Amino acid sequence: MTTIDPAAPVLVTGGSGYLASWIVRQLLEDGRTVRATVRDSHKPKGLEHLHALAEAHPGRLTLHRADLLDDGSFTEPMAGCELVVHTASPFIIGKVKDPEAQLVRPALEGTRTVLASVEATPSVKRVVLTSSVVAIYGDNVDLAGRERFTEDDWNTTSSVDHQPYPYSKTVAERLAWEMAGAQNRWDLVTINPGLILGPSLTTASASGSMTTMAHFVDLSMAAGAPQLTNSVVDVRDVARLHITAGDTPAAHGRYIAVAECVSMLEMGRMLRGAFGNRLSFPTRELPKALIKLAAPTAGLTRRFVERNVGYPIAFDNSRTVAELGMTFRPVEQSVVEHFQQMIDDGLAKGKRSA
Ligand code: NAP
Predict the structure, then answer these.
(1) Is residue 209 within a helix (H) or strand (E), and if so which, with residue range?
(2) Is 169 labeled as catalytic in the residue annotation?
(3) I need a labelling partner for 218 at 20 to 30 A (CA). Which of 2, 210, 258, 343 fits?
(4) Which residues does ligand 1 sit against, CB inside 6 Å?
């Protein structure tokens, strides 16, 4: 049982990111004091929303420079915090030139860096780590013969060469459990979300969530969508889940954050229902053989297509619902409100159908 003092400051790593920005906002709206780490606290673009939040909540949000690859950089902002929410980690979908340097090292070394600061900070009682469903499975085909993934499953099929982002999340989460298990002053809770969608507070994030939604704006699915199923969850729900996990004394272990599993075609249907017909919303699915042929030009490997396209996935979120009292927004709401935000930010054109 871990009780967090709501008056103590909460450290949020990667505070300017798509998900973290919502965590920071909800913590402030709850009346908490927040220290958000960012790589460059003086950058002219990408922090506007955090500056606005700081102004709206005087004296309760401060920004601190820290880098996952800079040992000790999280220690000073962590002083006096009881709860650390570690979200910072690169989320890149598609072509990655150097997966070891761009994904695995920052995820793994970054977890080591942040938890070393936790070790050096006696006030910390709990760490909530943003992991992912991709630390639970690597490819959709991994579910073969079973009904749904649970928190007991671990991704054993990814590597630096195949599915490097899932690999980076898996090795980072494993290291976190190892470091947590080696002591008993602080405890660890992980949140394992599916693809996070929903309105963004920042236009500066290059998260895979943004690149996925961008496919419904460019014409990459005009001829049809791959038969690809994603587990999806709303960004506001995932943010709330991190806070609830931090504040629930009995919370422990891993918590799957998935509302529903939907295909790209179903997401296209949701968007057409709200915004009308447009070329960028797919109306059919393309044969797997065609997707495989075109894979390299779309930044996908043929092995990825082989092991993911055409295979359904499903998750058991019952532990999250029962133990953390979570209710998830329907995916249609997340998808439609995400696209509306893109229109509002000038990243897509159009208006909602009457
Ligand atoms: P995001 O907007 O790109 O946020 C990633 C954050 O990580 C950014 O704040 C970035 O800081 C920070 N970061 C990256 N490299 C860093 C480094 N070397 N040092 C310090 N900070 C660094 O992506 P997101 O979607 O919000 O992802 C947040 C977390 O959720 C990640 O752990 C991701 O794996 C996890 N997750 C995301 C999804 C999803 O669908 N979005 C699903 C499951 C799990 P800068 O702003 O300085 O670049």
Answers:
(1) helix 208-214
(2) yes
(3) 258
(4) 14, 16-20, 38-39, 67-69, 87-91, 106, 130, 132, 169, 193, 195-196, 205-209
